[in-house]
Every structure is written in structure tokens, then in C-alpha cells.
Amino acid sequence: MDGVTENDISHVIEADKAHVWHHLVQHKPFEAGDPRIIVEGKGMRVWDATGKEYIDAVSGAVWTVNVGYGRTSIADAIRDQIVKLNYFAGAAGTVPGAIFAEKLIAKMPGMSRVYYANSGSEANEKAFKMVRQIAHKRYGGKKHKILYRERDYHGGTIGTMSAGGQTERVMQYGPLAPGFVAVPHAMEYRAQWDLSGEAYGERAAEAIEEVILREGPDTVGALCLEPITAGGGVIVPPVGYWQRVQEICDRYDILLHIDEVVCGMGRTGTWFGYEHYGLRPDFVTLAKGVASGYAAIGVTVTTEKVFDMFKDDATDPLNHFRDISTFGGCTAGPAAAIENMRIIEDEGLLDNTTAMGARMLANLEGLMDKHRVVGDARGKGLFLGLELVADRTTKEPVPEKDIAAVVADCAAQGVIIGASNRSVPGLNNVLMFAPALIATPDDIDQITDSVDRALSKVFG
């Protein structure tokens, strides 16, 4: 907190309490206490307004700061670019926009086009609009339905909430947009059928096909899924699932939209989560880790086949994709993304993510032997979850207040972890971890040791 006096901080806190409306927070408690104010970050660590140091195990609380805090090379890249050209509307091109698109597509065989926006929600909205316009251009408007999965999350706009599989996230915001249809989740730990392993994975995929047949394949335009369900509980789909999903989409001519807003840019140990499963998506949406939070950026990536559906010589002036994202024209985002990608490559962060993820998962699995309250440890790369249950046999979830108590105790120890909250009724019982891809063995052990102590304190 160099250069910030105690009086300055007191003013900041009062200004925040008086004027800032925080995300996902009930403000009533601030009448008697202060909000957390984060003032500085370096590497894996941040400092609050009181000077307290924390190791950040969730990369900015929402899985974003993939390469860690304080990267001067990204700040320099942004500064140099915005002094030269800070913005021009996306109807024209810019140097960083072209260069980042080229570099991104080089890592995505089968994909070819990048549409710029400024957030994950907006990137997903663009894909939904593309699906709807394709339905009108090619199918008389009929093939317009978009399927989404229970427990998945795709954004906070009315459109993306309409494709939201987390009931508590959409409560009180209806009526939602029509034409979005849920398919069953693929969470083997809470299996809907008396099956396991590959048999469960195939059955969960077949449940998607059942929805398609019920709705009518000629009405379904796209299937939108996270490669690994994120806020709904860090759910890694079982073996056999993704292969069948791809087959089903191919069979019924349904566009496959993979939402990589969380998993993309190295979070799971590969550039994109879908790479683990050999998928051939038609849309891939990215945000969060694309620039590690140094600048706002979201992208909708498509195949040339999708792009060509909007490119024709017809005289109808409505045939092209009639969309604009004002701040998709900011050059800071792609400039930051280019340097972010270089850091991931040059520092070997994909390999580090795989190694540190394996260490962290082993540590979390080790907690099962010590704490009966741990029902399941799961994840891929540096994206992991620990599900807490009151009874391992019945899998009864622990109350959400106990999850909050664990998170609070870790924070008191100087470790910021995450948790599912106000998402899935009765099932907000998962601790979540997404450390920066730069994490060291000591970082990983400090995080899991703090969870060990917190579980002992909260549950005895």
C-alpha cells in the first residue's frame, strides 16, 4: 500500500460504503461494518485496506487472474497500445484485434473467426443471436431453440439467464426469454440413474437426446454447455459423455456451443477445456482468463461454416450479423490478451497447471481421510471443488452457513477460497479453488492446509 495514507484509506472506505453497489453482496451488514477493500496484488497475493495479506486461491474471486497480479509487461502492452489507438468501433479492424485473433485461431483447429465483445455474458449473447439469425435465414425461424444444462451458468443478462441452469441465480428476474430448454446435469456424484462410470456418462448424454426428440430436432438450433460445470459445483463430466454429445449434435444437425469463459486459456491444463474431450465445437466463447483481468475482453469464436452463413450476395440488407459491442472495439483487451498468451507459453504455465492441479487434487482427496464431512474431491488442472456433506451415505449437503463459515475461517488465516452460493437450491455445498496458473507447491499446500484447519474448526 505504498503511497496510500491511513486517512486516504478511511476516505476510500467511506466513499465505497456511501456510493458503490457491490456484486453478489447483501449490503445491510455494511451499516455496522466495512466492506472488504482490496488495494494491491502481486503474484498469488493481495492486500486489503487494513494491510492484511491473503493468498488468492480463486484468481480474483471469479477465476480470472490466470497469470497472477502485478504483470508489468501486460500493463506496458496496454499502455503502449492505447496511447497509439485506444478505440475504434468493431466495424473496422485494429492491429491488436487482428494479431490476437490470428494467434488464438492457431490454437483452435477447426475454428476460424473471432467476434469481439467485452464480457463472457456478452460473448454468449452473441452466439445465441447467431443461432437465432441462422434459424431465420436457413430454417424459416423454426430451428431456434437453444438447449442448456442443469447447473451450468452462462451469464447475468436476461438472455444468458434464460439459459441458466442454476435456479437461484434466475429467481426474481423473470419472465425470461422463450426458446431455451434445459437438459439434465451430468454429475455422477449425484447421479439421477443407478449407473456409474462410462455407463452413467452415456446415459446422461442420451438424456440430452431425449429432450431433443421431445422438442423436435427440427426446432433445436444449438446445445450450449460448459466443458466442466463451474459455479454449479466444479463438475467434470464422466467418461463416455462428451463423445456421445458430439454424436448427437452431428446426428440432428445441432450447433455445439462450448462456453469456455471459465475453463479457457489454461485453467484446466490445456488451452481450452474442450481439448480434453476431442470435441468439434461450432461456437467457443471466452472471457475471464483471456487477458487475466488486465483489460475487459470477451470473444465468440466460430467455424468458417458458421461465418459463411452470414456472408452472401443477397440484396437483403438484413442478411449480415447485425450486432455491435461498443467496448468490443477497445484495443486494450486484445493487446493484453496477446501478452497474456505469451506469458502462458513462455513460462510453461500449462504444464505447471497440470502438475500443481494434480498436487492440489491429491491434497484435497487426502482431506477425505481426515474429515468425514468431505464427500467428494474433484476437478481438472487448477480448477477444483470439494463437496461437503453431513452424511457420506445419504450425501445430505451441509448447510450453506457452514460452507460460509469455512470460507470465513480460511480468510481469517489469510487464504481466499470460493464456494458455491445462492446457485442450486439445497446444494450450495461445494468449496471451490482456482489458483493462478503460476502457483507453486508451497502455495498449493498453504491453501489446502488452511482448508484442513477450517474444517476442523467448523465441524470438529
Automatic annotation (TrEMBL):
List the lineage, top down: Bacteria, Pseudomonadati, Pseudomonadota, Alphaproteobacteria, Rhodobacterales
Q: Which family does the similarity line name? A: Belongs to the class-III pyridoxal-phosphate-dependent aminotransferase family.
Task: State the Pfam families in the record.
Answer: Aminotran_3
| Key word Transferase present | yes
* Family matches, as InterPro entries: Aminotrans_3, Aminotrans_3_PPA_site, PyrdxlP-dep_Trfase, PyrdxlP-dep_Trfase_major, PyrdxlP-dep_Trfase_small
Give the record's keywords alphabetically. Answer: Aminotransferase, Pyridoxal phosphate, Transferase
- In Gene Ontology terms, what is one molecular function of this protein? transaminase activity
Q: Per its record, how is this protein called by name?
A: Aspartate aminotransferase family protein
Q: Which residue ranges does UniProt annotate as crossing the membrane?
A: none
Among its keywords, does the record have Phosphoprotein? no
Task: Tell me the name of the encoding gene.
Answer: tpa
Signal peptide positions on this chain: none
Q: Which cofactor does it need?
A: pyridoxal 5'-phosphate
Name the species this protein comes from.
Sinisalibacter aestuarii
Top-rank lineage group of the source organism: Bacteria
- Could you tell me which Gene3D superfamilies the record lists for this protein? Aspartate Aminotransferase, domain 1, Type I PLP-dependent aspartate aminotransferase-like (Major domain)
